[in-house]
């Protein structure tokens, strides 16, 4: 069974400056809860209890958030404000947290490789916290993907259809359909121009990776933007028929930019906060 989930969280969050100049983008609150907490809750609901976070300079707030604040706990003990800590207390009691630092920003592939000492030789999930995914009508996205991994025992990547004019923002896949919303990946291109994109099926920030990905990343030369791209390493797996793309059930909000962040805030306010499910 998959138990580990890796959160690459060392990036600068430049699309959300100046808010992210001194605050990690993963700590941006959606209503009253930071982005990364939504991601960890999704991981726990999927049975992933060993949480590994790749951090960087200025990211200490992430470690502090997933820790006990004794002064705060003592201050609100016995008051109705304790209800606001129910969710984070659950995570602290049911998950373990480990951290390592990415000292250079060399792309998502490099960030995942940096997490190797925390993961070891096991299959694992990867969550990009600024992609907030929710499914009001069933299993969360990671739960859906874990079930698929248990069936296929290979790398699973989450995809969604995007506007063809926006393929230059994503890794884009092409492949053959092998089931409902499932594709065996044959081609994968990082941020192609619309006229060069093999499809409009874009990779979003949810992955389940087999441990051989680490050696494939080490063998990968810098690609688009001079960064080590995870899509280049995944393409090597795909050449052996070992990557499945899954068009997940649910909604995804790109909280790395203002428009998606505001949409996510409005959605979570209506569906979680107002209904008392936000804590």
From TrEMBL:
Gene Ontology molecular function, alphabetical: UTP:glucose-1-phosphate uridylyltransferase activity
One BP term from GO: UDP-alpha-D-glucose metabolic process
The protein's Enzyme Commission number: 2.7.7.9
Protein name: UTP--glucose-1-phosphate uridylyltransferase
Entry keyword set: Nucleotidyltransferase, Transferase
InterPro entries: GalU_uridylyltTrfase_bac/arc, NTP_transferase_dom, Nucleotide-diphossugar_trans
Record domain Nucleotidyl transferase: where: 9-268
Family: Belongs to the UDPGP type 2 family.
EC top class named in words: transferase
Purpose: May play a role in stationary phase survival.
Nucleotidyltransferase listed as a keyword: yes
A Pfam family hit: NTP_transferase
Catalytic activities: alpha-D-glucose 1-phosphate + UTP + H(+) = UDP-alpha-D-glucose + diphosphate
Organism of provenance: Pseudomonas fragi
């Amino acid at each position: 069974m998959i138990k580990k989930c890796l959160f690459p969280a060392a990036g600068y969050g430049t699309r959300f400056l100046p808010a992210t100049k001194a605050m990690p983008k993963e700590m941006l609150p959606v209503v009253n809860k930071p982005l990364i907490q939504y991601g960890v809750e999704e991981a726990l609901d999927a049975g992933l209890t060993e949480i590994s976070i790749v951090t960087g300079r200025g990211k200490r707030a992430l470690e502090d958030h997933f820790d006990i604040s004794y002064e705060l706990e003592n201050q609100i003990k016995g008051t109705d404000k304790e209800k606001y800590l129910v969710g984070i207390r659950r995570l602290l009691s049911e998950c373990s947290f480990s951290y390592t630092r990415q000292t250079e920003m060399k792309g998502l592939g490099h960030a995942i490789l940096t997490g190797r000492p925390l993961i070891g030789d096991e299959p694992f999930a990867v969550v990009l916290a600024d992609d907030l995914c929710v499914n009001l009508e069933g299993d969360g996205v990671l739960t859906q993907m874990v079930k698929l991994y248990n069936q296929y025992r290979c790398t699973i990547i989450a995809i969604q259809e995007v506007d063809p004019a926006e393929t230059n923002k994503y890794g884009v896949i092409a492949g053959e359909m092998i089931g409902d919303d499932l594709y065996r990946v044959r081609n994968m291109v990082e941020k192609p121009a619309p006229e060069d994109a093999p499809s409009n099926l874009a990779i979003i920030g949810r992955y389940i990776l087999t441990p051989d990905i680490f050696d494939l990343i080490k063998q990968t030369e810098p690609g688009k933007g001079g960064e080590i791209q995870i899509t280049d390493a995944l393409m090597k797996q795909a050449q052996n028929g070992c990557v499945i793309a899954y068009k997940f059930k649910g909604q995804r909000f790109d909280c790395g930019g203002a428009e998606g962040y505001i949409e996510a805030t409005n959605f979570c306010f209506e569906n979680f906060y107002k209904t008392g499910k936000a804590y």
